[in-house]
UniProtKB/TrEMBL annotation, chain B:
One of its GO terms (cellular component) is membrane. This is Phosphate ABC transporter ATP-binding protein. InterPro entries: AAA+_ATPase (IPR003593), ABC_transporter-like_ATP-bd (IPR003439), ABC_transporter-like_CS (IPR017871), P-loop_NTPase (IPR027417), PstB-like (IPR005670). Gene3D superfamilies: P-loop containing nucleotide triphosphate hydrolases. Pfam families: ABC_tran. GO terms for biological process: phosphate ion transmembrane transport. It comes from Bellilinea caldifistulae. It comes from the Bacteria. Residues 5-247 form the ABC transporter domain. The gene is pstB.
Amino acid sequence: MNLPEYSRKMRQVEVLGINLLRLITLLTAVPVIGIIVFILIRGLPAISWEFLTQMPRDGMRAGGILPAIIGTVYLTLGTAIFSVPLGVAAGIYLAEYASDNATTRLIRIAIINLAGIPSVVYGLFGLGLFVLFLRLGTSILAASLTLSIMTLPVIISTTEEALRSVPNAFRVVSTSLGGTRWQTTWRITLPQAMPGVITGIILGLERAAGETAPILFTGAAFFLPRLPASPMDATMALPYHIFVISTSVPGMPLQIQYGTVLVLLVFVLGMNLLATLIRNRARARRQW
Amino acid sequence: MQSKISVQNLSLTYSDGVESLHEINVEVIANAVNVFFGPAGGGKSSLLRAFNRLNDLADVRHLSGEIWFNGKNILEPDTDVIELRRKIGMVFSRPVPLPLTLWENVAYGLLLMGEKRKNRLDEAVEKALRLAALWDEVKDRLNDPASAISGGQQQRLCLARVLALEPEVILLDEPTSALDPVSTAKIEYSLLELKEQYTIVLVPHNVQQAARVADYAAFFLQGRLVEYGIGKQLFVSPKVKETEDYVTGRFG
């Protein structure tokens, strides 16, 4: 085989390979797009002002899903209240203060493993610790705390990562000008890392908003005739409501099911979009 | 001539073993340009970073000896390093403007000290920028991001940032290595003016610069102080063979 022929063959293999990879990549996007389009088509007809702002009627077979929407908003906010301060604080400690020793390595491994625990285990843990042992009952508070534990590893590791990506030269300069570690973090490093931190927070909360298992035993209600009035009340929530109306209510109109799924999808994807926008804006503005 | 910093038997080793200092004895003379020069890896930067205890951030395995400044051995653990760094400022080889405005960069050290009075800060910022010969170029754009000015201006901004704290000693670690000749000349000229008021320690980025500005010079080679003396003498008639070889360009 002479050289020109060989290189022609190589070029053919190259082109074939690239196109194959292109096709496979395209295929991975198909399920996501498929799901979104399908849910949009089936769910959009159900969406109306009434659907979003009314209580359910006729054993949830008619009316709106307001209590589930409000419940998911409460749970997401409740999760944020606990997981954001703790997670960001831990991330700052790990990135800026902790020295690289056996203890911090153990902490990092624990955090990584925390992220790998199945969500139903969080649910049972929350039931044991918050609902029963701490006597919080099935409540927004107990469910938020459970979701917080699940969200923490995401927030901690993205915060740490975002801080580590800030150039070390800034820390050295700030220190050389008489800055303490805390002043340097507060005035320079953390503001520079903020877009990354916020992205992590949103992605963590987004996961919490869509979870069913952790709230199943800790705060979610099958049906409530009124909106929750305090953090100690149980609440309806979108993911669990979808489970309920898909499995436990005979004669449930399909349209309501699709409509509810669409609302949850918009809620979660909306948060995702927000995170992406913040990240892109920050990247465009960054000076380093 | 009065000694400002006195280094006695200083030895230092980093954990990675890249650079180290062996039994250094040297004086930094007040109100003069003290030049520490020599080939890369000779320990000049390490010595500078020992003066303001910036080595605390690095992985130092071994540190012994004494550095006397204002009647105190600053290597003692009870040294107030924050106070020390305000008195011994540092300019780095690459200009690193903090990701803040020009004004905030110059005022940074004072802001960290808790100074909140706007008029005091404004005065200090103007004074420092004038000293660094940058005021006229940036006075109308103090609220712009510091990254918007040129590299040479950025380095003078870094100098102004140090001057705003009114330090006693200014350490400059190859401050012109990333700059063009015109910007380099401006920095060098500033140093000659500043030494009236401040004590300057400069690691030059080449021998020519060392010879141009040195009042006192110390030649470092592989972590050892080879020769130390009055600048003019050391560059014209070095006593040690290695110094002569380096100064005349036979190696380095």
